Amino acid sequence: MPELPEVEHLRRTLAARIIGMRIEELVEGPHDVLDRSQVSASAPRTRLLLLGATVVELRRRGKHLAIISSDGRVLGLHLGMSGRVTFHAEPDRSDRHAHLAWRLGGRLEGRSGRHLPAPSTADAHQPAWCVFRDPRRFGGLTAWASPKALDDAWASLGPDALETDASILVGRLRGLRRQAKAALLDQSLLAGVGNIYADEGLFRARLHPNQRLDRLSDAAIVRLVEGVQAVMSAAVDSGGSSLRDYVDADARSGSYQDLHLVYGRAGSACPFCERTLRSRVTAGRTTVFCPDCQRLIHNRRGARR
DNA sequence: CTGCTCCCCTGGGAGC
DNA sequence: TGCTCCCAGGGGAGCA
Length: 305
Description:
Layout: H1 4-18, E1 22-28, E2 34-35, H2 45-48, E3 55-61, E4 64-69, E5 74-78, E6 84-88, E7 98-105, E8 129-133, E9 140-144, H3 147-154, H4 166-173, H5 180-185, H6 195-204, H7 218-237, E10 278-282, E11 285-289
Parallel strand pairs: 2-9
Antiparallel strand pairs: 1-7, 3-4, 4-5, 5-9, 6-8, 7-8, 10-11
Helix pairs in contact: 1-7, 4-7, 6-7
This protein binds a DNA duplex through loops.
């Protein structure tokens, strides 16, 4: 379940392996997972998939990643539910879920003044093939004509839930007539929160998932934003949450799933009050919360406007 | 504006 | 052991 922390951890581990590298060969799987609606129809497919390009930057906004090449080509990457990017000595041509494999080579040191990680002794032994695999295909690739085109598209996303100053996120959430959980999951309000970190953030903020935001004081909204950011920040440090599929570019699992307080724990005791955690469907997602610690607030508390 | 419901897709787990 | 069934979930479309 890659959400912001998993995607950010992947970005970091992947950057260490592909920044400065040239894509010298590519192999595609049987399924077409490339969205080319954002580029001209005549653009050659291999060009859109960055063949011959040198990677200079890996950007992230919410759960979205984008690979920027030195000649301005951009390939967006979304992991969906089950996506992963890992490295192998050879591409497995019989794996029907391996959608794209790149053979990388020729790291160019210091290109365009950018600081590059010093080559380690392990570099020479690193498998040369970078493989994007996504069995469920909720994820995929998007070709962009330029970094500017990417920026324009990403403008429809809200600000990144982790990198953005809390006060800005508070401003976007306060006064909304929506339920807290639905708002957190809305990527156009703030980008990066998925089902896990929404539940964990709500629990830490002591707010009910169905809480209407316009009934809350500013202090409570601040608590919510800070709860979500704290959880995500801790999760990045733990390498994310690995429930089934997620691994980083070094094929390592995260460990934050061990620190989940409510997600996946319906029927167990609340870690604070010991009452049984409950599960319900809210905003189309299974939602776990403590009915005792997370009470609905019906009146408007505290100063607001 | 808001909240639904459905759909995409596969594999892991539960139940028999 | 092996089968079927259900469900997870990000995101977009369509509808009340």
